[in-house]
Write a structure and sequence with these properties.
The complex is a heterodimer of chains A (110) and B (110). Chain A is built from no helices and eleven strands. Chain A has strands spanning 5-7, 10-14, 19-24, 32-37, 44-49, 55-58, 61-65, 71-76, 85-93, 97-100, 104-109. In chain A, strands 2, 4, 5, 9, 10 and 11 form a six-stranded mixed β-sheet that branches. In chain A, strands 1-3-8-7-6 form a five-stranded antiparallel β-sheet, with no helix packed on it. The relative contact order of chain A is 0.33. Chain B has no helices and eleven strands. In chain B, strands 2, 4, 5, 6, 9, 10 and 11 form a seven-stranded mixed β-sheet that branches. In chain B, strands 1-3-8-7 form a four-stranded antiparallel β-sheet, with no helix packed on it. In chain B, strand 5 and strand 6 form a beta hairpin. The chains are: A mainly beta (110), B mainly beta (110).
């Protein structure tokens, strides 16, 4: 199983600030998914990226897949308290498995 | 879309007692099913996955077992719980590549 490294592990910012979190691997992804999880709930899919260099936007969230398909980033513009949560990246592996990174805990203070 | 039901939502059990967590899926047929464990709000560790009735793959050696008696039913069990089995257990399913999660079962072993 190839490891997924997420950074930073924890991020605390003020409302209105911008931020970027990262997901990296030493091997190529066929696809990568980003999830957001609130305390006490299951993760919810935000986006799937497949093509190297791909950029997807979801309101104030911008997801980018690296050209070499070994890394991805999530950029949030003008963060709001409702963005608080655990952000997880995940990659598919042989045998229908989805392997997750350790996540980035984001706290947005009002 | 798929809906996943997990129960119980919360469970407190003594060391050495048995465990049964249940997961049922609605809105799809022949899904891939997964059990994940999450410690302290961090990344998800894949425990078991199943691509069909009676087909179980285990990812890590442990004190737990899984069964899939019906197409849309996935059960996580233990004969004797250990303190280290405490955690947040998430059932998930996919039939399209997107992973849908249940709301989780929080297990505390005392």
């Amino acid at each position: 199983t190839q490891l997924l490294e997420q950074s930073p592990q924890f991020l605390s910012i003020q409302e209105g600030e911008n931020l970027t979190v990262y997901c990296n691997s030493s091997s190529v992804f066929s696809s990568l998914q980003w999830y957001r999880q609130e305390p006490g709930e299951g993760p919810v899919l935000l986006v799937t990226v497949v093509t190297g260099g791909e950029v997807k936007k979801l309101k104030r969230l911008t997801f980018q897949f690296g050209d070499a398909r070994k890394d991805s980033s999530l950029h949030i513009t003008a963060a709001q308290p409702g963005d608080t949560g655990l952000y997880l990246c995940a990659r598919g592996e042989y045998g229908n498995k989805l392997v997750f990174g350790a996540g980035t805990i984001l706290r947005v203070k009002s | 879309s798929q809906t996943i039901h997990q129960w119980p939502a919360t469970l407190v059990q003594p060391v050495g007692s048995p465990l049964s967590l249940e997961c049922t899926v609605e809105g799809t047929s022949n899904p891939n099913l997964y059990w994940y464990r999450q410690a302290a709000g961090r990344g998800l560790q894949l425990l078991f996955y199943s691509v069909g009735i009676g087909q179980i793959s285990s990812e890590v050696p442990q004190n737990l077992s899984a069964s899939r008696p019906q197409d849309r039913q996935f059960i996580l069990s233990s004969k004797k719980l250990l303190l280290s089995d405490s955690g947040f257990y998430l059932c998930a399913c996919t039939s399209t590549g997107e992973l849908f999660f249940g709301e989780g079962s929080r297990l505390t072993v005392l």
